[in-house]
């Protein structure tokens, strides 16, 4: 395996039309930060670059919705994202942005270099044009019905309901998202990168030379290559972005997928004048951390761009993760179904590492995974509090109690002591192997195994029982426990930097290098440790219930919004006398039972104030019989009787149906007498 002199680590540029959520963190940013922090602990020459992706159609859509300029949108969200990343302890060497002057020049020069070398194909194609708005429509500005799932709000590039990738011409009944008018087809000229020209190289480079890549990454690349690569447009008709630097290209900008990855290069330029050694020296290992929706761009498109330009190195690995769901549902920014990082930091002050820990422990490394608030609470209380925090606190409290906070001298080690300490180098080796192969979940388990080892050691040796009879043995036990604590501070630093810093502060020592992990003399006898303090605290049920209610409120708001969009048109007008013929009364359900051999029907006994009668209602999938008894409802009592499944039904209960199809009883806001007329 090749040894590299330096590392360049990039993290996918978050899109500056909204904040960062836990799906982004678990998929990209926490894995990236773990890897970078580990390399720094090893003393490696490594730089970590990231920044906001600030061009493209979603930015312009957001600006139009809010009645502001695109620059206002990206300024707002760039700052929110940057500050949230800082709050979580993300250790980027630079967090840049694609609206910077350096980036504009870098991307423009990159395009011009490929253009001058003849690497593009110029093609005139037919695209949708909004005559009312007087502009060509990018895919996101075209809305219509998905041909696969019939969702009537699919975009020209993707249906967010079923996840299908679409072309604008696939949509049924397409219309402009700007004016609502039906677009027409017009000619427009654009430049295309001929990916097919690089297909043979990519086949060899990926499928033969990088079989060690993650299965999901390798498999997606193979699928694309097996289908055959096609030329891909690198320009767009848009007024927001980097202008195409070619004569006659007025009103055209660089397509955001072409512009954005160049942001890694421009960020490095802003970071260091020695940027070229990180991008053009074969002794540099470049690693892209991304989500699975960006695999093609980072493994096929961007390498083709770099190769066409010449002089640049290609990534050694692209360890993409799968998606993280939230409480069993796909995270959706448009539906506000997410846990937003900036809100978490406000609502859970001092618990940055709890989120980092849970998202790593539950990372979607090989398949989509699910974040739940109950799991978040359980992992905090049963693992961080009961395992990691418990061990460190016990080791420090016992030292404070028996030796006035001074590290006791280590006496003669027993075989058991040597066995325990002998496990540290093995854990260190497993940690290294897992981190260097991008298996961060397994690596975190190994780091936690040090805390488990320490807890076992204290439970087995029971120094609190030995202190009066064998104080010398207790000195050795606590010395060993404190050395394990020091190693633990090293092991958890890539995953939980705030916790590592707390442990070092409690031990009153400076930061150790990675090579010191497992060293049994990190703390010298007589060294005074700090005052013991808890690393973590339990999270109570009420805190979790508040978060679940927050999500429930989001779901209710979404349902109301959906219901508003799907309101049925008004029916034909009727005469007042026709309405007057209907006799609607308030009644009380006094008995309810299921009708045998049916899924939907309930037999209800109703007190109408006039009489007691039976009504058959198809609500068994929405209400249990016992939940209905005693409820006041509105009933159409003069409906012609009808026999259903052998039961005579004398009336109809009035219901409403929400956006999900759930039936909801219509009840008076306050109790009224049975038989009260509604009208």
TrEMBL record:
Keywords: Aminoacyl-tRNA synthetase, ATP-binding, Cytoplasm, Ligase, Metal-binding, Nucleotide-binding, Protein biosynthesis, RNA-binding, tRNA-binding, Zinc. CDD domains: Anticodon_Ia_Met, MetRS_core, tRNA_bind_EcMetRS_like. The keyword Nucleotide-binding applies. A motif ('HIGH' region) lies at residues 14-24. InterPro entries: aa-tRNA-synth_I_CS (IPR001412), Anticodon_Met (IPR041872), Met-tRNA-synth_bsu_C (IPR004495), Met-tRNA_ligase_1 (IPR023458), Met-tRNA_synth (IPR014758), Methionyl/Leucyl_tRNA_Synth (IPR015413), MetRS_core (IPR033911), MetRS_Zn (IPR029038). Its cofactor is Zn(2+). It catalyses: tRNA(Met) + L-methionine + ATP = L-methionyl-tRNA(Met) + AMP + diphosphate. Homodimer. This is Methionine--tRNA ligase. It comes from Alistipes hominis.
